[in-house]
C-alpha cells in the first residue's frame, strides 16, 4: 500500500436481524437497537445500529483491504445514528484512502456514510504494514 | 436524574474473565461478517461492555438511556484463542450538555499474566433528564 491509494469502497447492508445477531454475539442487548418504541422513548428516530456494529463493519473493510493486517488502532465518534428500518436494511458505505505509510504502520483515512450522510466522526484505523 | 459527579476516578472491573475460544470468536466474527480466521478488532468490546454494565448496574443507570458516543481501541498485541481476558473500566470524565450526561471512560483489557492486551476509550451519552 502506498500513500494516496484509493481503496475500493465497501457497502454493507444492515438489517434488524443483523442487530439481533450482533446483540447476542456481543452481549449488548440495549433495546434501542431492537425495539422501535424504546428507541423513540429516548428521542431516537427509530431502531439504530449499535455504534460498535458500524465500527465492526469498518474493521471488516480494513481486513478486506489489507488482507487481514494486524490492527493497532481503531476508533471513531458515533456522530449520526444508522437508522435501521423494520423491512429491508440500511446501507453503510465504508470508503478509504491510504493516508500515510511510515515506521511500519499504515494509517487509513476513512469516510463512513449511510444515505449519503457521514455517520462516524474522526474515524481512524492503523494497521501494521 | 443526573449522574453522580463523584464517580470520576472510580474503577469498575468486569465481573468475570472471558476465555477466548474459537466458538466465541467465530460467533462474533459471523455476526459482523468478518473475513478470515483472525479475531475481529472490535471483539474487545465484549469485555469493555461487561465492565460498562458493572458500572451501570452499580449506579442504577438504565442501559436503554445510554447511547455510545465514541469508542477507540489501541491494541498492544492481537487477541488469540486461549487468552483469558479481564477488563477494568475507569470513569475519566463527566459533563452535562443539554440535559444529557456525557460520561468519559477508559478501559484496560489484560491477559492472565496481567499484561495489557488492549486499551479502550469511550464516551457514553446518558439521556436521563426526562425520567
TrEMBL record, chain A:
- Source species, domain of life: Bacteria
Coiled-coil regions in this chain? Answer: none
Q: Where is the MaoC-like domain?
A: 9-102
Q: Which InterPro entries match?
A: Fatty_acid_synthase, HotDog_dom_sf, MaoC-like_dom
Looking up Gene3D superfamilies in the UniProt record yields:
Hotdog Thioesterase
Name the family. Answer: Belongs to the enoyl-CoA hydratase/isomerase family.
Protein name per UniProt: MaoC family dehydratase N-terminal domain-containing protein
UniProtKB/TrEMBL annotation, chain B:
TM regions (residue ranges): none
Domain FAS1-like dehydratase residue range list: 33-119
The protein depicted here goes by the name MaoC family dehydratase N-terminal domain-containing protein
Organism expressing this protein natively: Nocardioides baculatus
Amino acid at each position: 500500500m502506498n500513500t494516496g491509494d484509493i481503496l475500493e469502497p465497501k457497502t454493507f447492508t444492515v438489517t434488524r436481524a443483523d442487530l439481533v445477531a450482533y446483540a447476542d454475539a456481543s452481549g449488548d442487548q440495549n433495546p434501542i437497537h431492537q425495539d422501535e418504541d424504546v428507541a423513540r422513548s429516548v428521542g431516537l428516530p427509530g431502531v439504530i445500529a449499535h455504534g460498535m456494529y458500524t465500527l465492526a463493519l469498518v474493521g471488516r473493510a480494513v481486513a478486506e483491504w489489507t488482507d487481514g493486517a494486524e490492527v493497532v488502532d481503531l476508533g471513531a465518534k458515533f456522530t449520526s445514528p444508522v437508522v435501521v428500518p423494520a423491512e429491508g436494511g440500511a446501507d453503510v458505505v465504508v470508503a478509504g484512502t491510504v493516508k500515510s505509510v511510515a515506521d511500519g504502520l499504515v494509517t487509513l483515512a476513512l469516510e463512513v456514510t449511510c444515505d449519503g450522510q457521514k455517520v462516524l466522526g474522526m474515524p481512524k484505523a492503523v494497521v501494521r504494514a | 436524574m443526573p449522574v453522580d459527579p463523584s464517580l470520576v476516578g472510580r474503577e469498575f472491573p468486569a465481573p468475570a474473565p472471558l476465555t477466548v475460544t474459537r466458538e466465541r470468536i467465530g460467533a462474533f466474527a459471523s455476526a459482523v461478517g468478518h473475513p478470515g480466521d483472525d479475531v475481529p478488532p472490535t471483539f474487545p468490546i465484549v469485555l469493555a461492555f461487561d465492565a460498562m454494565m458493572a458500572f451501570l448496574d452499580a449506579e442504577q443507570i438504565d442501559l436503554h438511556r445510554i447511547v455510545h458516543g465514541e469508542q477507540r481501541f489501541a491494541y498492544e498485541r492481537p487477541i488469540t484463542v486461549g487468552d483469558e481476558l479481564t477488563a477494568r473500566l475507569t470513569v475519566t470524565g463527566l459533563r452535562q450538555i443539554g440535559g444529557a450526561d456525557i460520561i468519559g471512560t477508559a478501559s484496560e483489557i489484560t491477559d492472565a499474566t496481567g499484561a495489557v492486551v488492549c486499551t479502550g476509550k469511550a464516551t457514553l451519552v446518558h439521556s436521563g433528564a426526562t425520567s
